[in-house]
From TrEMBL:
This is Endopolyphosphatase. The chain crosses the membrane at residues 20-41. GO terms for cellular component: fungal-type vacuole; vacuolar membrane. It comes from Candida maltosa (strain Xu316). It is found in: Vacuole membrane. One of its GO terms (molecular function) is exopolyphosphatase activity. Residues 533-544 have a biased composition (Basic and acidic residues). Keywords: Glycoprotein, Hydrolase, Membrane, Signal-anchor, Transmembrane, Transmembrane helix, Vacuole. It is a single-pass type II membrane protein. Residues 509-547, 611-630 are annotated as: Disordered.
Length: 656
C-alpha cells in the first residue's frame, strides 16, 4: 500500500519530521485557541462579536412526527440555539406566509352581498364569509384563522411573514373609513400577531412576524409619503414588531428588516407603496427627491451589508412587482437589484392581488429598458447579447396586453366580486410564461431570472389560503456552530446618517418636483438622467450563487398551500379549518426543490401549449398534420388555474 510506504519515508528525514510535528502542534494550538476564545466570548475584550452558546439538533417524538405529516409537511430534526443572553430559539426549517386579512367589523352573518354584507335580510352572507361574493372578512374568519395557526402551526414554524392589508376596503358610504378606524383595524390585527407569538413556550425568540404595510393599511387609500402622519399611524399599530434601533428609519419610510437567525437570515419588509403607480404621491424612482428613489438607497445599503455579513434574505412587500402595479422606473430597478444580489436574495413574497401565482422577473428586459435612459452607466452583463431580441420592460407584449385589456382599477384590487381574472391569467400565460427562455439563454441556473411569489389571501375573494414554506436545514447545525456575529449598532448609525443626507434632497429638488407635476397622467417617457447610485453594481465574480439558484442551506425545498373550503364550512358539512390544497412536489407541479430553475422550468410547461399553438399558427397549415394535443401540459395549466383561484371554481363560473 502506497500510504504505508510514504510514512516511513517521511519520518526518515529529520527535516520532514520536524515539519510534520510542527504542523500537528500548529493544528493543536489553533484548536486550543479556538476553544479558549469560544469559552471567553463574550468577555468585554471582544464586545462586538457574539457566538451561540449552544447549537443542537433535537429529536422529534412520534406524536410530533405524525402531526407534521398530517399537515403534509416534512418531518426534520429542528435545531435549537441558545444565545449568550440565555434566549432559546428553535429552527424547524419552515415559515408561514399569510396575507390580506381585510377584517370588517361591520360584517353581518345573514345580510346581503349587495350591501357589502353590512345590511339587509336576504340571509346570503355566510357566517365565515363566502368565496367570490365580494365582501370583506368577517371577524369570525379572522378569529378562526389565528386559532387554526395557533393550534396547528405555531410549534412547527420559525417565523411568519405577513404581507399586509389588515383593514376592510373602503366600499360603503354609510361606513366611511377614517384614519382612526384604519388605525384601530391595524392595531386589532397586530395584537393578534402579538398573541400568537406568546403561545410560544419557554420565552423562545421566534416566531417573528414581519408585517408589511399594505395599500389599504393607509389613509387616504394608497397614499403614503415619506415621514408622514400616515407612517406615524402605521408605526403606532406595528411598533412591537419594529426593532427599536430601526424606529427612526421606519418613521421615514415604513420599511425595515428583521434578523431571523443572527448573521444568517433576515426578512426585508419593503414599502412597495413607494413604487406603486397608483400612489398619487409617487412619480418615479429615478428622481432623487422621490420616495421610491430613497427606498432604493436604503435597499442598496441594507443588501450590501447583508452580503458583507454573508447573510441570506427574503424580500417581502404588499404590492407585487409587475408591469402595471409598479412604475416602470421602479420595477426595472427592483429587478436589477434582485438580479445583482442573486448571491443574497432567496426570493420575494407578496399579496394584494388575491391570486395565488408566481411572477418571473427578467433582468434582460429590465437592463434593456434602463440602458435606453442611462446609456453609459453599464458594462455589459452576461446576458446582454439577448437584449437585442428581447422587448424592453414597459414596452413588452405583457405591458401592452395589460394596458389594453385591463383597466387601472383592476390593479388597484378594490375588493368586490372579482371579474376578468381568468382573462388575466390567460394573459400571463401567453405573455409571461410562454416567452420564458431555456437554459441556453438564461444560464445554467436560470440566473437571468428571479421570482416573485403572490400568495392567496385570507379575505375570501376566492377561498381563504395560507402557505407554509419549507427550507433546507440539513447542515444548519454544523454551520451555526461556526457562526460569529456582530451587533448592528454601527450599521444603524450609518443608516441614520444616510437618512439625514436623503432628507436634504427635499429642499434641493423643489424645482424639479413642481415641473413634474404638470406631466402627471400623461404616459411617462423616462427621461435621461445623470449618474444614479441607486443602480446596483454587478455581482462580484467570486461570489457563489445563493439559495435561490443552487441547493444549499436556506434553499426553499417545497411549500404546502392550505385553504378553507368556505362553502362546506358554512353549510356545516365541515368544521372550520384549513386543509391541504396542493404542494409543489405534487405530480402536476413536480418540483423537486424550489430554486429559480425549478420555477422557470415549471413556467415553461405552463406556457408551452400556447407557444406551440402560436408557432403553428404562423406556419401554413400543412395537410395531414394533426393539431397537437397536450394531455399532461393542459392538465398542469388547469390545475394551476384551479389553485390560482384557491379551489373556488371561479374559472368555471363565467366571471371572465
Ligand atoms: C412529544 O414532545 C412534545 C413536545 O416536547 C410533548 O409535548 C409530548 O408530550 C411528547 N409526546 C410523547 C408521546 O412523548
Ligand atoms: C386583448 O384581448 C383580446 C381578446 O382576448 C386579444 O385578442 C388581444 O390580443 C388582447 N390585446 C393584447 C395587446 O394582447
Ligand atoms: C441542503 O443543503 C446542503 C448544504 O447545506 C446540500 O448539501 C444539500 O444538497 C441540500 N439538500 C437539498 C435537498 O437541496
Amino acid at each position: 500500500m502506497e500510504k504505508e510506504k510514504e510514512i516511513p519515508k517521511r519520518s526518515s528525514s529529520p527535516y520532514l519530521s520536524l515539519t510534520y510535528y510542527c504542523s500537528i502542534f500548529l493544528v493543536f494550538s489553533i484548536c486550543i485557541y479556538a476553544t479558549i476564545t469560544n469559552y471567553i466570548y463574550p468577555l468585554p475584550t471582544t464586545p462586538t462579536i457574539n457566538q451561540f452558546v449552544s447549537v443542537n439538533s433535537l429529536n422529534l417524538n412520534d406524536s410530533q412526527i405524525s402531526s407534521i405529516k398530517n399537515l403534509g409537511l416534512t418531518p426534520k430534526k429542528p435545531v435549537q440555539i441558545i444565545n449568550n443572553d440565555g434566549k432559546k430559539m428553535t429552527i424547524h426549517g419552515r415559515f408561514l406566509h399569510i396575507t390580506d386579512l381585510h377584517i370588517d367589523p361591520y360584517y353581518k352573518d345573514g345580510s346581503d352581498f349587495d350591501e357589502m354584507c353590512h345590511r339587509g335580510k336576504s340571509g346570503e352572507a355566510g357566517k365565515y364569509g363566502d368565496a367570490i361574493m365580494g365582501c370583506d372578512s368577517p371577524p369570525l374568519l379572522v378569529d378562526e384563522t389565528f386559532k387554526w395557526i395557533r393550534e396547528n402551526l405555531i410549534d412547527k414554524i420559525d417565523f411568519i411573514i405577513y404581507t399586509g392589508d389588515s383593514p376592510r376596503h373602503d366600499n360603503d358610504r354609510e361606513y366611511p373609513r377614517t384614519q382612526l378606524k384604519i388605525t384601530e383595524m391595524n392595531k386589532d390585527i397586530s395584537r393578534r400577531f402579538e398573541e400568537l407569538a406568546q403561545y410560544n413556550k419557554d420565552g423562545e425568540l421566534n416566531p417573528w412576524t414581519c408585517h408589511v404595510s399594505g395599500n389599504n393599511c393607509v389613509w387616504p387609500h394608497q397614499t403614503i409619503a415619506m415621514a408622514s402622519d400616515t407612517i406615524r399611524e402605521l408605526f403606532s399599530a406595528w411598533k412591537e414588531f419594529i426593532p427599536s434601533y430601526q424606529m427612526h428609519t421606519y418613521l421615514q419610510g415604513a420599511y425595515f428588516f428583521q434578523e431571523i437567525i443572527p448573521n444568517q437570515l433576515a426578512v426585508l419588509s419593503l414599502n412597495s407603496l413607494f413604487w406603486f403607480s397608483n400612489n398619487p404621491l409617487v412619480d418615479d424612482c429615478d428622481t432623487p427627491s422621490d420616495a421610491g428613489y430613497k427606498h432604493f438607497e436604503w435597499l442598496g445599503y441594507v443588501l450590501k451589508e447583508m452580503r458583507a455579513r454573508n447573510m441570506k434574505v427574503w424580500l417581502s412587500s404588499h404590492v407585487p412587482p409587475n408591469e402595471k402595479n409598479f412604475d416602470n422606473t421602479c420595477l426595472r430597478k427592483y429587478i436589477v437589484w434582485t438580479h445583482e444580489y442573486r448571491d443574497v436574495i432567496i426570493g420575494g413574497l407578496y399579496g394584494h392581488m388575491n391570486l395565488d401565482h408566481f411572477i418571473p422577473l427578467d433582468s434582460v428586459q429590465a437592463y434593456k429598458s434602463i440602458k435606453k435612459d442611462f446609456k453609459n452607466q453599464f458594462t455589459d452583463s452576461a446576458f446582454s447579447a439577448f437584449e437585442i431580441e428581447e422587448e424592453e420592460l414597459g414596452e413588452s407584449g405583457l405591458y401592452k396586453a395589460l394596458d389594453e385589456n385591463f383597466s387601472d382599477g383592476f390593479f388597484k384590487a378594490l375588493g368586490g366580486v372579482p371579474s376578468n381574472k381568468v382573462k388575466y391569467m390567460d394573459t400571463l400565460r401567453e405573455n409571461l410564461y410562454a416567452p420564458l427562455k431555456g437554459q441556453k439563454k438564461s444560464g445554467e441556473y436560470y440566473e437571468r431570472y428571479s421570482v416573485a411569489h403572490v400568495g392567496a389571501s385570507v379575505i375570501p375573494t376566492f377561498n381563504p389560503g395560507l402557505r407554509v414554506w419549507e427550507y433546507n436545514i440539513t447542515n444548519l447545525e454544523q454551520e451555526l456552530q461556526q457562526v460569529k456575529f456582530e451587533p448592528w449598532d454601527k450599521f444603524f448609525a450609518g443608516v441614520e446618517k444616510m437618512v439625514e443626507v436623503q432628507s436634504k434632497y427635499e429642499s434641493d429638488d423643489e424645482a424639479s418636483i413642481s415641473k413634474k407635476k404638470h406631466k402627471k397622467n400623461k404616459k411617462k417617457k423616462n427621461k435621461k438622467k445623470k449618474r444614479d447610485h441607486t443602480f446596483p453594481k454587478p455581482m462580484p465574480k467570486d461570489r457563489p450563487l445563493g439559495p435561490a439558484y443552487i441547493e444549499q442551506t436556506y434553499t426553499p425545498e417545497r411549500y404546502v398551500q392550505y385553504y378553507a373550503d368556505l362553502d362546506s364550512i358554512n353549510k356545516g358539512k365541515k368544521d372550520f379549518g384549513y386543509e391541504i390544497e396542493y404542494s409543489t412536489d405534487d405530480s402536476l407541479y413536480g418540483m423537486a426543490s424550489l430554486t429559480v430553475k425549478n420555477w422557470i422550468e415549471y413556467g415553461r410547461k405552463l406556457g408551452k401549449p400556447i407557444k406551440e399553438a402560436n408557432a403553428d399558427g404562423k406556419k401554413k397549415n400543412k395537410k395531414g398534420k394533426k393539431k397537437k394535443t397536450h394531455g399532461k401540459l393542459d392538465k398542469i395549466w388547469t390545475n394551476y388555474l384551479k389553485n390560482t383561484f384557491v379551489s373556488s371554481d371561479y374559472e368555471h363560473k363565467g366571471y371572465g
